[in-house]
Amino acid sequence: MASREFSLIDNYFKGKGHQRKDVVLGIGDDCALLSVNDNTLLAVTTDTLVSGVHFLADMDPRAIGHKAVAVNLSDLAAMGADQAWLSLALTLPDANDKWLAEFAGAVIEVCDYYGVTLVGGDTTRGPLSVTITAQGKIPAGKQLTRSGAKPGDWLYVTGSLGDAGLGLALLQGREEASSDHREYLINRHCYPTPRLLAGQALRGVASSAIDISDGLASDLGHILKASHCGANLFLDKLPLSQALLGTVSLEAAWHYALGAGDDYELLFTVPEAQKGALDTALAHCGVKHSCVGQLRGGEGISYLNHGQTVDLNVCGYEHNWS
């Protein structure tokens, strides 16, 4: 079932108003795709992070700056885009020079690392929030979307899952961990890594893709809805870190991986004929990938553990709407 956030988008914004011919893909995916010329698409994405909703009120300003940029670049990665430009709208309760210096330093550091230029934005007074619009370029016809998957395609993820959600639980005092595991897990929450090289390498190989922001189950649901498929998800194949498994039970680890969100790994599908090309495509990206399921006809997600059906009730991250 779609969350309230996506219902609002569908009901009030998606498909409304005049649709320009240069809009190849509008509302409803990780990025909009705009036709720049016959050979290039412009990928555009916007995300807002609000204090107390998307990050803790006392979060390190460097972590806020890093995360704000990284989650937008992750959307570009999910479309297979080459990252290019960024604009920033910052709302602040007051102009704290120390806070601003640390926040801005992190924003510029991440932009420099990924070869992105900050080209503009706005500042205003109010409750702390950060809005970033990121833009990138994709060769026409090579874009990754949520709607290209078919029954029989294999389901993959990059990296490991559940770490960021457990990191948040540690910060909130809901879980406890050893010092070594705690540092790793909290860093995974505060400093996500956008899988840009992997996304670019998947062009022409993956049939669909999305980044994991709301949890594997929820984000897989977006691919299934857009591609009109169901999925078998293999719990025993989920990539779970030693830090995660060393801190919580296996079943709790499944729930963090499936529902906690904030991983910003890539979830993608690959046709049988492209499985051999996948290893070659990702060989130089510096990130592991794991096959965690297969698409099928029908609807919904079936959870399997070593071939046996498991009854799980998984809810992904959802914004609070009153």
TrEMBL record:
It comes from the Bacteria. It catalyses: thiamine phosphate + ATP = thiamine diphosphate + ADP. Its EC number is 2.7.4.16. Mg(2+) 5 binds at D214. One of its GO terms (molecular function) is ATP binding. Reaction mechanism of ThiL seems to utilize a direct, inline transfer of the gamma-phosphate of ATP to TMP rather than a phosphorylated enzyme intermediate. This is Thiamine-monophosphate kinase. It comes from Gallaecimonas xiamenensis 3-C-1.
